[in-house]
Amino acid sequence: MFKYRLLIVLLLLSIFYLYSPSSVFSIWFKIDHPVLPVGSSSQWDSKIAGAPSVLLENGKYRMWYEGSDGGKWVIGYAESIDGIIWDKQPSYLLSGFDTSTNFNLNDPNVIKFNNKYYMWFGSSTRSLNNFHINFTLSNDGFIWNQPTFNILPEKNSWEFGLGTSFPFVLYDKGIYKMWFASQGVLNNIDKWRLGYAESEDNIIWHKKASPFLESLPSEGVDLGRPYILKENGIYHLWYHSDKNIYHAYSYDGINFIRDKDNPVLKPGPQQFDNLRVTTPFVLHVDNKYYMFYTGMSTDGKWQIGLATSDDPGFIPDTPTPGPVTMTPTPTATPTVTISPTPTSSPTPEYTPTPTIDPKTAPIILIPGMGASWNSRALYSCNITDSNDNKWKMTPFVSIYKRLINTLTKNAKLKLNKDLFIYNYDWRQPLDTQADNLKKYLDSIIKSNSSVKKFRLVGHSLGGLVIRSYLERYNTDNNVIQALTIGTPHQGTLLAYPLWENGEIWSEDLTSKIALSQILEFCKLNKTDLRSSFKTGRVSYPSKKDLIRSLIPSIQSLLPTFDYLYQNGKVKKTDSLTHQNDWLPKNLFPENRYHIKFDTLSGTGQSTLSNFVVSNPSTSDLAKDIWADGKPMKNNFVNAGDGTVLISSSRLDGADNETVTGDHLKIVSSKEGIQKILHFLQYDEVKVADALDLPEISSDNAIIISTDLSTHIILTDLSGKVLERGDNILVRYNPRVGVYKFSIIPAESGEAVLDTMFIGQTKEYINTVEKIRLIKNVRKTFLLTYLGKNTDSIRIIPYR
């Protein structure tokens, strides 16, 4: 009989495993007593010992926790060699810093970074109101610096209640990421919800406008203490509700899917946690997961318990394709001060088409600002003269050649069949860019009926061109994948001096040359010289006016996050005189346009993070410059590519990758191209050999250009040809000396000749004059260059 029963049991088990889902789920086993109990009646933690934060260092567990004797809440410390038996430090480490807003301290979160200990913790009033998050630093984890208070002030309606607390911070790929809880009203419901924020420097934090998670009816009312463990690209989240602990997972750290086996930890049956289990903290050690948590009992005591599991929680074997959706978090009205990029308004109805192999779709490479050239259009000084079909790769730009060589020579793609380079008028507003890209894609489809889908790859401004197209023409349904590289999805601070006063602060010689060419040619072409003969004075248009009228795309690059500080206070971006005209109205959607959407960011470079500005002067206001303040101090962080902050080049909900390198190297370095190949599913393709990239390796350049159709040749005095160019010639890192250059016109007429020296400082030196040219008649000049530290660059006719 026993054998038959055993066979039946084994049969039932085999059926269960045969039909159960092939997924990972967890069972947590509790230790039946508190591992860190409250202290004796005379001790500072006699009533409460909870909210643990644990590090494992050199075989020793170190715990920081909150404690109270029923009066003041403080932060204490304990150590253990096994995580079960703990030795407490007799006195607490941190106590309240004043008798008002920072009287009680709670919920410490400690990480070790750069051989220092970073602690974020909550504090509140004596009556446990006005919760806010603070930060302090220590060399040893015992002696802590004076904190910085209220680093994450309330901004949104769902935070304006009891306040913000329960911080958990993860330093992930050069970014500080914080998950927290706030209490306030949203959709007429008052409760605690979970929020998210990011920072490049742990000083200025950018919040997601809406909570990323709020309670389900089955969970109770309030959520608290989010804890994150990132493993194998998956973010595991544990959090507590009114009485239980729950698990969720995410592929981006913001959009979470709840565990189907929730709750993962419940109260009891032990006496010490028979009322509630809260504030989970999970470590993964030696193939086992250890959850330290706070157990609350009916006698009013809070004590720290421990549960273990072999697995973190339920995860499907195959990651859910596309974006994951929060359940059931309602979306708050987006603001423009968010990092990462917030949720957009609904997009037009989308109709899916049959699946195709992405590798069969042609690639459209869209370069950044200044990397496309059309002398006739640029020197026309007329934004309506776009001359759309005549744009080509800028002759002095070579940063895309290695990527193109990799795709054409090593991946065997055919140019203008499998790979297209889309050169375009980068001066135009983004809505116009969308229309122009649509015309280009439609023309490819019209000429090749087999083309159904495209893979779009955009560098810098090119990434915003992609977004403008998807935003405006998503229902065309002809894009299968998109990758943006170093794209300012939340703007770049370099746009501020450019838009406010026409000042070029970029050290990127490519864009600097292109912008300065427009400014200098159009300064002369837009000047009414006839009126100057009467007054004896020449009145040139300001650089600011030229930028705003001739390159309106710059306004779409202004930051959407708070980046100006005046009189010790932040100036809200949505209150500024000049604001980004496109990004706040076209927020990145949660559905990612129904396609695979990735980003690639550069980091490790000194990048502008904010300006301290003066009050605008009467003179500046009269000139309509620096209306929101002139920069007096520029603050930098290393979390960016030198042009765009990493938090700006990432997108909330996209697959975000990072490489070390500046704004140009991320698209030309071996590491950057490998990331691009991975996105394109060409992992087996070898990156082409490195090339000389003078726009990256050079500190300065001499530029000779004309607005008529000409061929320009630069030689030394012996006649040796150094450079050639049509309409424009660039000589990187010129030597001090005398040169000779010849202009061979393809047409007759009056031309503007500009000779310019550009370095990596804010200013450039140039001479501009009008000359008479005759078709096919060579005109030759001598050029004297006396060095980059002088203002001497002179030209004289040679013959």
From TrEMBL:
Region of interest called Disordered, as start-end residue ranges on this chain: 321-356
Gene3D superfamilies attached to this UniProt entry: alpha/beta hydrolase, Glycosyl hydrolase domain, family 43
Biased composition (Low complexity): 323-342
The protein's name: DUF676 domain-containing protein
Native source organism of the sequence: Candidatus Gottesmanbacteria bacterium RIFCSPHIGHO2_02_FULL_40_13
